[in-house]
Amino acid sequence: MDARSPKKILVLGIGNILWADEGFGVRVLETFNTLYAAPENVSLLDGGTQGLYLVQFVQEADYLLVFDAIDYGLAPGTLKIVQGDEVPKFTGAKKMSLHQTGFQEVLSAADLMGGYPKKLALIGCQPLDLEDWGGPLTPPVRNRLVQAAELAAVILEQWGAPCRLRAPGEAVEPLLANDIDMQNYETRMANVRTGG
User: Fold this and answer.
1) Are 133 and 17 in contact (CB under 8 A)?
2) Closest Cα partner for 184 from 17, 68, 24?
3) What superfamily in CATH does domain 9-194 come from?
4) pLDDT digits over 37-68, tens only?
5) Whole-structure pTM value
């Protein structure tokens, strides 16, 4: 690749929206997309719980930024940024769900196959509740979505990919299909849980 070519950057949200705060990674990616227009060399991907299916995307990325719910042992809603070689330690530090072990394996597989990102950053949020099936994000985690998106914009700017803050009312192509965006999903699940 030409040294002057823009780096391929992947912004990846991982987690399971069905389990309350476990959906942080996906929801902050959605928030980021609503707030910012990224340059053409930046791809946004809802990785959900896809595990090893994400290897090809990770291999193709020069730089990788990940959003995830991480048990750092801190107060709920606390954001923490981890970079470089420290990232795999945190994605496997405590098994909170199947996807985390899977993502650590994704990084290992990409490394073994010679496609490990040159730069790697994780924006993690300390969850409060991972047991509430169908539940929304808890307030401490929900209240950090915008801040996490802003931190991502700072990292991307440091990586040479400044993002443009969207204008109020600007049309945004949704990242999540099938009405699983946060507002539709949480409204529907609230109705299911209350019998409405």
Assistant:
1) no
2) 17
3) HybD-like (3.40.50.1450)
4) 999 999 999 988 777 788 899 999 999 999 99
5) 0.87
